[in-house]
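Sorry to interrupt, but I need a hand with the structure work. I would like you to pick a protein and set down its sequence and fold. Please put the record directly below this note.
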Amino acid sequence: MRTFALVTASGAALLTAGTPAPVTLAVAGDPDPVVAAPAPRPVLPAVPLALVARVHQAPARAHRSGPPPARARDGKGTEVGAADLLAKVSACEQVSKGRYRTDEAAPPTVPVCGAGGAVFWKADLDIDCDGRATAACNAATDPSFHGDTAFHASDGRPLNAAELPYVVVPAPSGTWDYAKSGIRGGGVVAVVHGGKVEYAVVGDVGPERIIGEASYATAKSLGIDPDPSSGGAPSGVTYILFKDSRVSPIEDHEAAVRTGRALAGEFVRDSRSTS
C-alpha cells in the first residue's frame, strides 16, 4: 500500500490515503503482463492548509458633536460677556426728551440712552405675566394679569410670558417713541443683571411713563425671583435694544439668542459711542 500524506507547514499530518502496490500494467498483444515496479514516492512540498487573512482596522474616528453654539464675540474673537456690554453702556447720551419712572410712585430718574446701533436704559425689573394664561401666569397668581400682549405669536395668540423671554417698552409719547428709534415688536434685546446676559425680544408695550419690565421667563433665566406678586429686582438691570433687528417668528427664542449674540459682538466693537 502506498501512502500519501498532506501536511501543514509545521509538519502536522492532516490527511492520509492509500493505493494498492505494486501496480500491474497490462499491454495489449503481450501475453505476459508486465509488473511495474512501484514508482518512486514523490516528495510533496509542505502546503499550508489554512491561510489567515489580516483584518484591516480603520483608526477610530473622533466624535463630532457639531460646531459649538454661536457666541457673541468682539472683533478679536473674544467672547462678549456682561462686563463687555456694561462697559459699552457706561456713559449715557440721552435720546429721550425726558425721564421715566420705575414705578408709578417713583420719581422720573431713568433716561433712554443711545450707543452705537442700540438704545439702552438702566432700571429695575418688574415681572410681566401678561399674555397667554398658564400655571405660572394667570389672574390668580398675578393681580394685574392681562390676557393679551401688544405683539402676538405666529399663531395669532398672545405671547407666553412664562416661557418666552421678552421685554416691555413704554408706550410712545412725547418723552420717547420706540418706533422712531428703530425698535419694534420682535426686536432683539440683551438684558444684563448680576453678571448674566439673557437675550430676549420686544414683546409688550407698557404705560407711557413707566420703564423697567420684562417677562416671567426673562427674570427666571437671570436668577431673579419671577413671582409676579412679590418677585422682580429693585435695580441693577440693563436693557440694550438693538436697532432695526427682528426675530420671526417672535416666539423663536433660539433665533433671538443667535441673533443677539451676533449683534452684541458688533455692538461691543462698534467705534461709535452714541446714536
Q: What stands out?
A: The first strand starts at residue 2 and ends at 7. The two ends are 112 Å apart (CA to CA). The mean pLDDT is 81.
